[in-house]
UniProtKB/TrEMBL annotation:
Lineage: Bacteria, Bacillati, Actinomycetota, Actinomycetes, Pseudonocardiales
Domain NADPH-dependent FMN reductase-like: 11-158
Annotated protein name in UniProt: Flavodoxin family protein
Coiled-coil zones: none
InterPro entries membership: Flavoprotein-like_sf, FMN_Rdtase-like_dom
Domain of life (superkingdom): Bacteria
Pfam family, one: FMN_red
Amino acid sequence: MTSATDTPLRALALTCSLKPSPDSSSSQLIAEQLLTELGKHGVDGELVRVVDHDVRPGVQIDMGDGDAWPRLREKVVASDILLITTPTWVGHMSSVAQRVLERLNAELSETDDEGRPSMAGKVAVAAVVGNEDGAHKIIADLFQALNDIGFSIPSQGATYWNNEAMNPVDYQDLESTPEAVASTNATLARNAAHLARLLHSAQYPAS
């Protein structure tokens, strides 16, 4: 019998912190935790902090003149699961996350040989951290955009942590991961890997 982890899968975590490396980042921490959880289900992962790369503004695959997005796009194309992690800033996703969505928007014009959207068959999940409210709205915005682009969203495919309002403590400052977050992280990983394997074995109908 084929086990649930026999199909090799790859995940790409695009961390959309505003802090460049090597600064510590709560968005990077939760991405690392989720990649560890995905690894328990036979998923190899890679983490990229987007702000470390010169991703130009625009809505084309390649904006030219040293644009780093085409190289990051290659990683997206090679992955089965895309994880986007973002902090909450003034109630919204970071500007880096917004730029990632804007660059992924170019995929609406790309199809495979059978007419499917270029990202069809890939799974997208999300994680949001911050010491202010807004996680549900950010996840809704991320999932609406990613689904439009062609990604599939698994059941309970998002996780988040919000501290109480106006409290300066960050996720990375916690002594341990709250049980509710850890449990949600595990569910996200389990469901994402499950859906990715299903789509790997049975692609959406041709256009």
